[in-house]
Amino acid sequence: MVIKMNTITYSDIEQFNYWWNVSGSWVEEPNRRRGGESGVLIHKDKVGQVFYVKRQEKHIYRSLLFPFGQQTIKRENLAYQAFKKIGIPTPELVYCGVSGDRAILVTKELKGFISFEQWLDQSNNSDANEIALFAVLRSIANVLSKMHKHRFQHNCVYPKHIFINLNDVQQGKENIEIALLDLEKSRKRFTAKQATLHDLPQIKRHTSLTMNEWRYFVQQYEIACDAFFPSLYI
To answer: Domain 114-233 carries which CATH code?
Structure first.
């Protein structure tokens, strides 16, 4: 399975080896899980383009469809394609390849974006940032509701996996972009409600949102998906 990159004209195996051997610094040190190894490095090419290269070896998952296991990156690649089809913003997928027990997934840097986690850490309690926070929460709610309407469950909706670009929101022009990262564990559920009730509590657990801020987020989510989730207010 290969997604060809237009700027590289190598054969498939040469292209795979190119990405497997590129230099860079680790943003996620290789760690052992799922019976294999997985890590992510950041690589800058000769013209200054920045890429994130996920490398995995013997890193598989098992399911009813794949009882003997399949490379985790294959599932993530399918998720990127599915999210693109339904209009859920993600980093641009540049390359995905599998060679034996090894697998690679390469995405482009999200220029101008910052993780929701980092933005929350940098924000203070000023009125301007409170206005921006409510705008960001509204935008995140809209994107997640769209994803859940298609019955997709992200499974790791942590603030570090939600990236935002505020653009001119500080000047009162609400033009916020949201992108979702790390689709490795995403999957379809039987109902949208199942996806909602699994994903949204993760945001609450991994942020320091006040009760007022959390209730606002849930309200905006309910408006976006035209449904009610009383249990989320608890």
So the answer is: 1.10.510.10
Q: Does pLDDT of 168 surpass 80?
A: no
Furthest-apart CA atoms within the chain: distance in Å: 55
DSSP line for 152-216: EE-S---GGGEEEE-TTGGGT----EEEE---TT-EE-SSHHHHHHHHHHHHHHTS---HHHHHH
Quote the pLDDT of residue 113. 96
Give the helix/strand (H/E) hosting 40: strand 36-44
Q: How far apart are CA 178 and CA 201, in angstroms?
A: 19
Q: How many CA atoms lie within 13 A of 226 on its CB side?
A: 1
Predicted confidence band of residue 171 (pLDDT cuts 50, 70, 90): low
pLDDT tens per residue, range 119-146: 999 886 565 588 899 999 999 999 999 9
pLDDT tens string 41-87: 999 999 999 999 999 998 877 766 666 667 889 999 999 999 999 99
DSSP 122: H
CATH architecture of 12-108: 2-Layer Sandwich (3.30)
**Distance (Å, whole) CA 55 – CA 87:** 26
Tell me which DSSP letter residue 23 carries: -
Q: Where are the domains of the chain?
A: 12-108, 114-233
